[in-house]
Write a structure and sequence with these properties.
The structure is a single chain. The protein is α/β, with parallel strands linked by helices. The chain is built from 15 helices and 20 strands. The chain folds into two domains: 263 residues, 3-Layer(aba) Sandwich (Aldehyde Dehydrogenase, Chain A, domain 1), CATH 3.40.605; 189 residues, Aldehyde Dehydrogenase, Chain A, domain 2 (3-Layer(aba) Sandwich). The strands form five sheets. A seven-stranded mixed β-sheet has the order 12-13-14-11-10-16-17, sandwiched between helices. Strands 7-6-5-8-9-19 form a six-stranded mixed β-sheet, sandwiched between helices. It starts with a helix and ends with a strand. It binds nicotinamide-adenine-dinucleotide. Nicotinamide-adenine-dinucleotide binds next to helix 7 and helix 8.
């Protein structure tokens, strides 16, 4: 049987320089990643530029067929990919984690292949006939984060390839092996040079964003880096899709049933141990049911096992890196210092191996506490009390980010009318963070711009061209 080590042995260094990647749960070595530099990036861009015209000329049908074969290849290697992802990223195999992420890679490839995009006739009045077509951009740069490294790479790569582009991927420094292995599997079904990975740091990312041969950057990561990419890409007027940081609010209306929603609230906040862009990061609960929601959520959260990802019993894992651990620890300390009430967790044991931070719920916290206003990106949820819906909406909209939000209620109409008042790219009702390859996804405010997924996601990877006449 193929193992994740088999996938890694096939990854050849270009410059010869390698670095050891450590398991965030144990500190053990996972494998060696190549350290690429700007010269390696130039080679990848040249290969992509050479391979792209023939790929574009294949047409939608043949490109979709190749994506379907690539999805089959991911499914054949699913278990070894999931093991590698679990070891490098830290997320457990089980639960909505590593196996789920690899499954999502295949699902997004298949949907990108199956989604129809035809020319749109915008005027046809007997005198004028105008149509919009979407032509390939050329070579696309894909820059990604460390939280869902395989899935987000596929979110960027699948529509780009489907639309006739070549892609150069720059994974996060924290999770290069997962992306290298995934792309190696995809490349078993793709022409040489069309899709490649350059494992560098910020300098390589910045060069990709300013490179004159790159027509578009697909970026997922922090808002600060998104702003840097806007600046680097300005001189070449590059197209950008920016999926940036979030600090999603959830509002529980007074008619919700605390016990019925507790498990969905939990996973909305703690999926991938809280390291998810569109996770529920601040929960606003009406006074009438505040104590019941706190009690129901605490009982669900206390029962969720956290530990080493390869142990099948675990559904929560470590933070992926020390930096993220420190952010979570600092924000929880700030909340405790302010007098907020710890319902669960908040008591890390830094001497144990791995970046494990216990599942933490904090109640009776002020809406302007740093744990509420900053993105914690980890397993710590602040629960804020409110007494009027206007007050809850104002607090939810008070930040300068707006990726997702959610409203929880037994009354769908009431929930929809609150949803319409929230400044967020997606508002879920009685769930949070559910993404779907058929449904467009993108941010409002400083959570970014551009849509991914569905037909809108394909259009974003093409250059619109109007044929008038
Ligand atoms: P990050 O911004 O630190 O890094 C992301 C990528 O950008 C990495 O590959 C990094 O090497 C690269 N990079 C860094 N500086 C660069 C520069 N100047 N030019 C070009 N590239 C550069 O983000 P992260 O810490 O890996 O990810 C966590 C953040 O990502 C969180 O804020 C989270 O909310 C956000 N996120 C958003 C989404 C979404 O869909 N909106 C999804 C996942 C994560």
């Amino acid at each position: 049987m193929e193992t994740y080590a088999d996938l890694l042995t096939a990854i050849a260094p270009v410059s010869g320089k390698m670095r050891t990647i450590l398991d965030p749960a144990t500190g053990d070595a996972v494998g060696e990643a190549p350290v690429h530099d700007v010269a390696d990036l130039e080679r990848a861009v040249a290969a992509a530029t050479a391979a792209q015209p023939a790929w574009a000329a294949l047409g939608h049908e043949a490109r979709s067929a190749a994506l379907l074969r690539a999805a089959d290849a991911v499914e054949r290697s699913a278990e070894s990919l999931a093991h590698l992802l679990s070891r490098e990223q830290g997320k457990p195999l089980n639960g909505p984690n590593a196996r789920f992420e690899v499954g999502a890679c295949a699902a997004w490839l298949r949907t990108a292949a199956a989604t129809e995009l035809t020319a749109e006739t915008v005027v046809d009045d007997g005198q004028t006939h105008a149509e919009i077509h979407y032509r390939p951009i050329g070579v696309v740069g894909a820059i990604g984060p460390w939280n869902w490294p395989m899935m987000i790479t596929v979110w960027q790569v699948a529509p780009a390839l489907r639309m006739g582009n070549a892609v150069v991927v720059k994974p996060s420094e924290y999770t290069p092996l997962s992306v290298l292995a995934l792309i190696q599997v995809l490349n078993t079904e793709l022409p040489e040079g069309l899709l490649s990975v350059v494992c560098g740091g910020r300098d390589v990312g910045a060069r990709l964003a300013e490179h004159p041969a790159i027509g578009k950057i697909m970026f997922t990561g922090s808002t600060a880096t998104g702003k840097a990419i806007i600046r680097s890409s300005a001189d070449t007027v590059k197209r950008l899709t920016l999926e940036l940081g979030g600090n999603d609010a959830g509002i529980v209306l007074p008619d919700a049933d605390p016990k019925a929603i507790a498990e969905d609230l939990f996973w909305g906040a703690f999926i991938n141990t809280g390291q998810t862009c569109a996770a529920l990061k601040r929960l606003y609960v009406h006074d009438d049911i505040y104590d019941d929601v706190c009690a129901a959520l605490t009982s669900v959260a206390a029962a969720m096992p956290m530990g080493v990802g390869l142990d099948e019993t675990n559904v929560l894992g470590p933070l992926q890196n020390q930096q993220q651990y420190n952010i979570v620890a600092r924000l929880v300390e700030a909340a405790k210092d302010s007098g907020a009430r710890v319902l669960l967790g908040g008591n890390p044991t830094p001497e144990q191996p791995g970046y494990f931070y216990p599942t933490t719920l904090i109640a009776d916290i002020e809406h302007n506490n740093p744990l509420v206003t900053e993105e914690q990106f980890g397993p710590a949820l602040p629960i804020i009390r409110y007494s009027t819906v206007d007050e809850a909406v104002a607090m939810a909209n008070a930040l300068d980010v707006g990726l997702g939000a959610s409203v929880w209620s037994a009354d769908l109409d009431a929930a929809r009318s609150v949803a319409a008042r929230l400044q967020a790219g997606t508002v879920w009702i009685n769930k949070h963070g559910a993404v779907d390859p058929r449904i467009p996804f993108g941010g409002a405010k400083q959570s970014g711009y551009g849509l991914e997924f569905g037909v809108e996601g394909l259009k974003a990877l093409g250059v619109p061209q109007v044929i008038n006449g």
